[in-house]
Amino acid sequence: MSSFDIVKLITVRELIERGRTKAYLLSAGLTLVIVTGIVVVPTLLGGGETVYELGSLGEGNQAIFEVTETIAAENAGEDGFSLEVTEYRSRDEAVAGLEAGEVEFVLIDGSEVLREGSTGFGGSDAQDDVQRAAAIVELEGDLAGSSADPATVAGALSGQPLPVSSLIGESNADEEAARSLIAYVGMFLLYMAILLYGNWTLQGIAEEKASRIVEVLLAAVKPWHLLTGKVLGIGLLGLAQFALTVGWGLLLLRVTDSLPLPAIPVDSAVALLVWFVLGYAVYSVLYAMVGSLVSRMEDAQSVSFPITMVVIVGFIVSLNVLDSPSGLVAQITTFVPFISPFVVPVRVAFSEITAIEYAGSILVTLLTVGLLIRLAARVYAGGLLSFSNRVSFKKAFSTVEGR
Questions:
Q1: Which of 191, 218, 260, 362 could be joined to 122 by an S-S link, Cβ 3.0–4.6 Å?
Q2: Sequence-distant (≥ 6) Cβ neighbours of residue 160 within 8 angstroms
Q3: Cβ pair 343, 331 in contact under 8 A
């Protein structure tokens, strides 16, 4: 049997055995329940009175605002609704109001919507209601005469009559919210996944060593076979649960419409996925390596402390990169494999990384994963069969002879 077949067999074993345990199923179910509660409960309880803070410039806005108020009040129901309109005397004054956050957008002469940036993933309720109101006002005007052409009526009902312009440029505004979400939320999700599911790998290794099952397994396979298969199996289970949780949360957000969700730019989505896998691979191997050094589950967390600190440092550095994605710290940590999984997706999200830097960071991280696997396999082989006490890294590394 080839090494590939052996690793595959061990991986499948981990997927089947651990995937059907009560602990895994309960944790998956409990996570989904928690996510459901976080998203659905606030929606059921209601968010209080809905307030639209809008700006007005020029003539022809009052009729649209009156219809908007009627539409929004019906949608708000018992929660209540109020419309607050700020009058501006010039376009410069309206721009200043938008930049100061005084209003969500400004309606100009009943024919244009001016906003500061993107309205987000699912758009703005206020803007949607104003567009509907503008269509109704236009339709009423068309029908106010005698006979309205059917094509005119259909056109007024079918689209959004008001053009929307942005202070930062329409092309940039359309992706601004999505890229910001990738930068902020992506690194946080990676941070949580590494800490939670990386510890799964550590505990899985420590459990088998403590139960002496590993002695039977090592009689049939080499230590690196066992290490690789367990990292892949436990890692896939962790990532599957994580993907299910995120997917369920996004689905609930769509259904309940409790938070606008944008269309994520392809390059940012791909970068997040690639670095999610690379970052998880780096830290899963490290957690597996230190898991082989302990003989009791009580010692598992203590040996993982240095790795946890590195993860925290990576997260803190990424916060700095959020403020300066093209700065010196960002450029240096792009090539530090224990930190780059947090940094590179942020730089990609803000389009502040060159193709050479991107390719170089991936290459360095892949080489690091390869070296870590070789190092971890040696430490793993030396530490697995030491059951009496916690084994030092040096002793485990120097114990192996040819396995």
A1: 260
A2: 131, 134, 135
A3: no
